[in-house]
Structure formats: C-alpha cells, structure tokens
Design a protein that fits this description.
The complex is a heterodimer of chains A (230) and B (284). By secondary structure, chain A is α/β, with parallel strands linked by helices. Chain A is 34% helix and 28% strand. Chain A contains 9 helices and 10 strands. Classes of the chains: A alpha/beta (230), B mainly alpha (284).
C-alpha cells in the first residue's frame, strides 16, 4: 500500500509443515494504529512472528519503509525500526526491571520518566528481578520497554492481557501519544474496548485468514463481535 | 602453620582454580548455546602443544598465549559455523559431532607430533615461601592467574553490558533477538571465546603436564564431573563443582594416591547423577 510504513501481502506460514496463517495482507501507515482481532488460536500471534522474522515465510512479502524484510533476522529488523513486544514470555525473567529497560542502551531515567510515573509499580521495583513480577506487571514492563524505544513501528501482542483497567487506560494514552509522534502501531488484541479506543483500522482473523478488515469507525461493535464469535 | 598443611591447602586451591578455568569455557558455551562441546579437552590439548611449539622454536613462553588464542579461536570459528550452528536444535547430534571432532583433532596432532609425551619447560623456576612452606613459583603464579581470571570473568559477566546481553539470550533467545541482540553473532563469539579459554588453560598447564594427544580426555571427563556436581548453566554451580571435584581429588590424592583421587570423584559424580541429577546449583 502506498505511503505505508509496513505492508505485507500473501503472508503464509506456520510451524514446520503446519500452515497456520494463509495469505494474509495488510498495511500500517505512520501515525496509524491497526488492531488485529480474533479468537484464541486463529493465527494472530503467528502472524506477528512471521512479520518480525521469528518464523520463516512459506510465501508472501513483508516490506518496511519501502524495503523488503525477506530473510532478515529479527535483530536486523529491530535495528531497522521494528519494536516487538511478544505475548508470551515478554520480559527477561533473570534480569532486573532496570536491566530489562536498559539492555541495549544504558537506562535513561529521563527518557523513561513519564512512563515510570504512569506505572509507579515498576519504579518501586527497579532493582527487583523481572521474574518476580505478576503477569500483568510483566506486560506493563514489556509495554514500557517497547514504547520507550525509538523504532518507528510498534508491534504489540495482547499488551492489555492481565493488566488492570486503570493501567490499560494509561497504555491507551501512551499509544495515542506514539501515534501523534508519527509512529505506526500493529496491535493484536482480544480486549475490544481497548482496541476500539486506539485503532484507526482493524483486521479480524479466523482460521488463519483475514475475514473482515476496514476503518475502525466504519465497523460497528456488533459486526466485530459477530465475526469474532463473541 | 604446619608447612605440610599449607602445601596441601595451596594444592587444593591450585586444583580448584585451574579446573575452574578449564571448565569455564565449556560451561559458558553450554549455558548460552545448550551445546556440550566434547572436543573442549582437545582445545586444551592444542593450547598445550602451542606452548611446546614456541619452546621448540626458541620463542618466549608467553608467545604461546597469542598463538594458542589465534589457532583455537580460528578453529572455534570454523567449527561453530560448519559443525555446531547447523545442529543447535539437536543436542544429541551435537554431542556426537563434537566427540567426532575431538577424535579428529587428536589424530591430527598425533600425525604431526606422534603419540609420545612432550615436555614443556617451566617458565618460572624455583619456589616461593608461603607461610613457612616452599611452594613451586609457577604453580603459585598459575593459581593466582586462574583465580584472577575466573574472578574477572565472573565480574564481567555480572556487571558488563555484554554480560547482561548474554544472560538475556540464555533466558529468552527469542525476546533477545526482538530487542536487537545479534543472537547468532553472540553465539559464534561465545563459542570462540570458550575455545580460547580452553587454549589459554592448555598453555598455562602445559609445563605441569606430560603433553600428548590424549591430554584433553582427562580434562573433558573432569569438566563433565564438575558440571554434574555443580549444576548446568550457573556460575555458582561451576565454581562449587570445581571446588568439590578439584578439592576432593586433590585431598584424596594427597592422603592416598591419584588413582584413589580419581575413583573418588567418579563415585561422587555417579552419586550426583543418581541422587541429585540437577547438581548443587542448577539454573532456574
């Protein structure tokens, strides 16, 4: 798609000989958020892992800022500007909260200050091992790590999972700020309210394929719920 | 202090610290890559032959250090790329492949130098008085260098940015790649580093050992015992395992003979495999 920061077409892939995602296409422009919705097990996380290079494509193309990502390892994609916060094991359990935030660049209190002020639970546990955090707190730590990075594209896999509602609302605020700063967001979500709060466009997946896509404002909640079978 | 007791205590410290240096390279490679490099002992052996080579060519003993690092570093680079990297996800195949590599290296050295023992002259002769006991100066220097090396590496691993990244890769390789850590390059460098440490320990130990192509077999077995007792994948485990195996072998050998010392550590390793298979300090 012209003007898109990330565009992908015919993305097909899975685990070994098992194909999970079939022919998925989409695009995200700078300053835009696209939410990928769907029930458990429909291939949302597999799609994220294909886009970030953690799984090889069986077929299809992925372009970022006009450049093909074909064959690039995840760390190379990160250096180009793809920031990925995975759903499972989102933090380094054996490192402190501070080291999780300062792994690639020294921890910068100034850069992290607004995020830590919004999520004081992390600031209180800076020197604690991330492995001792609750599931929701790990998600917050992963979110803070991703948002604080400077990459142009944020790929978040279920950032609100297990997070208290007040913190989900704070996350939405930071994602609006990221969009305003020109960053692009591709967010996998099951929390419809959160998705509707941040999304400009939505893609609904079922059985590894996109079954509904369009501008978030044009799709009613009932239509979304019907396609997600909720 | 009783001079005999002092000598025995120094011998224990010597055994433990030098064993820790030998095992460190093996443990770092296993911790990061999940690869048990059964050719590790052969890299120690090649390091020892580098010491023999420089002395045979009338070069200073210290020239063996860069030579061994270069030879084993280059070998490690090739082995990681050609043999180990394609087998990362297949630990049993890696065991077989590195065992085969060890045999190949032994045969290659034998083809050049023959089966016979070679001796390397001690670069530091004489003895030093320590608490009333005369102790060989080179053994004392080796002990100090080994302690400093292990302590320095542990400090670097815990405090440096690269050490944190290695720990991140050990904990969660997929996330590590996602945050921009070049996991493949780090794995390659770690393997080369492990081979380099083995080579360095080979150079250091060469003047105290009969240098021969099978020298590495003894070290790989002892290293294996250390990891069984201490636990795989933790530095505390490595140091405690070295303490138990090196310490027990040294003490039992001193009060009896080396055969009993070796038999005792073998029994300890079997007991650990049987009763505490994860060792004293397994990685959590």
């Amino acid at each position: 798609m012209s003007g898109s920061l990330l565009s992908f077409a015919g993305v097909t892939g899975g685990y070994g000989a098992t194909t999970v995602v079939r022919g998925v296409g989409g695009a995200v422009a700078a300053g835009e958020a696209c939410c990928v919705l769907g029930r458990n097990g429909v291939g949302k996380t597999t799609l994220m892992r294909l886009l970030t290079g953690h799984l090889p494509l069986q077929s299809g193309t992925v372009d970022f800022a006009g450049r093909s990502l074909d064959g690039l390892a995840p760390d190379r994609r990160h250096r180009l500007g793809l920031v990925y916060c995975p759903q499972e094991r989102p933090v380094f359990d054996n490192l402190s909260v501070r080291d999780n935030l300062g792994l690639m660049e020294p921890f910068d209190a100034h850069r992290h200050a607004p995020l830590l002020a919004a999520f004081p639970i992390l600031e209180a546990r800076m020197d604690q091992s991330a492995g001792t955090l609750s599931g929701g707190e790990r998600k917050i730590l992963s979110f803070v790590r991703g948002v604080a990075e400077t990459g142009q594209l944020l790929l978040l896999d279920e950032p609100s999972e297990g997070v208290q509602q007040e913190n989900v609302e704070r996350m939405a605020g930071f994602l609006h700020e990221a969009k305003a700063a020109g960053r692009a967001l591709l967010v996998v979500e099951q929390n419809l309210a959160f998705a509707r709060e941040i999304a400009d466009r939505v893609m609904v997946m079922d059985h590894g394929a996109v079954v509904l896509a369009g501008a978030a404002a044009d799709i009613t909640e009932d239509t979304l719920a019907a396609h997600m079978h909720v | 202090m009783d001079p005999i007791l002092t000598t025995n205590v120094l011998n224990v410290v010597y055994e433990v610290s030098t064993l820790a240096v030998v095992v460190l390279g093996l443990a770092v490679v296993f911790g990061l890559l999940g690869v048990m490099n059964l050719a590790h002992g052969e890299f120690v052996m090649i390091g020892a032959y580098c010491a023999f080579f420089v002395q045979a060519h009338d070069l200073p003993f210290l020239a063996a250090v860069p030579l061994a690092l270069l030879v084993c570093g280059f070998l490690g680079l090739v082995v990681e790329r050609v043999l180990v990297r394609p087998l990362y996800a297949r630990p049993f195949d890696t065991l077989l492949a590195t065992w085969g590599l060890g045999m190949l290296l032994r045969e290659a050295v034998e083809a050049v130098y023959g089966r016979g023992f070679r001796s390397v002259a001690t670069p530091l002769t004489g003895s030093v008085e320590v608490l009333g006991a005369d102790y060989p100066a080179y053994r004392l220097l080796l002990t100090l260098v080994s302690v400093a090396l292990v302590a320095g590496l542990v400090w670097w691993f815990v405090r440096s940015a690269t050490g944190r990244r290695i720990r991140a890769v050990v904990n969660n390789p997929e996330l590590a790649a996602s945050v921009g850590i070049p996991v493949t390059a780090l794995a390659r460098n770690t393997f080369v580093f492990g081979c380099g440490l083995a080579a360095l320990s080979g150079v250091m130990l060469a003047p105290l050992l009969p240098v021969n192509p099978t020298l590495g077999l003894d070290f790989i077995l002892k290293s294996f015992f250390v990891l069984v007792v201490g636990g795989l994948g933790s530095l505390v485990g490595l140091i405690s395992g070295s303490g138990v195996i090196g310490g027990v072998e040294s003490v039992v050998s001193a009060v009896s003979d080396r055969t009993w010392g070796y038999t005792t550590v073998l029994v300890i390793a079997i007991l650990f495999l049987w009763l505490r298979p994860n060792g004293l300090f397994p990685r959590t």
